[in-house]
Write a structure and sequence with these properties.
Blueprint lengths: L4 H13 L2 H8 L3 H15 L4 E4 L2 E4 L1 H28 L12 H18 L3
Antiparallel strand pairs: 1-2
Helix pairs in contact: 1-2, 1-3, 1-4, 2-3
Length: about 120
Amino acid sequence: MNVNLEYYRVFYFVCIHGSLTSAARELCISQPAVSQAVRQLEKEAGTRLFFRTSKGVQMTREGELLFRYVKTGVESLLEGEQMVKRMLDMDMGEVRIGASDMTLQFFLLPFLERFHRAIPT
């Protein structure tokens, strides 16, 4: 299978929400786009992944099996995105400064103290 990874992301949110409409809202895309992604993934997988019900969708056995693997992958990617955002927002990370003792003591120390007051750890 050569599946677009976006289909797995859509599949994940449909599984989490149990609804195509709720998944579309979460992903900020249209409900028909979600339906199309699910249909494409089902076509590539060669099986149905959901039963459509009046209250939303329910995973088939094949869908449940696939979800166990997709869940791990998508959640790892989402966590990675969050960690990069935290680093860019200076919520985490480190600064390394190479300087002599004299330079550190007489020049850099006041700047470092101000930095720590502005961004406490």
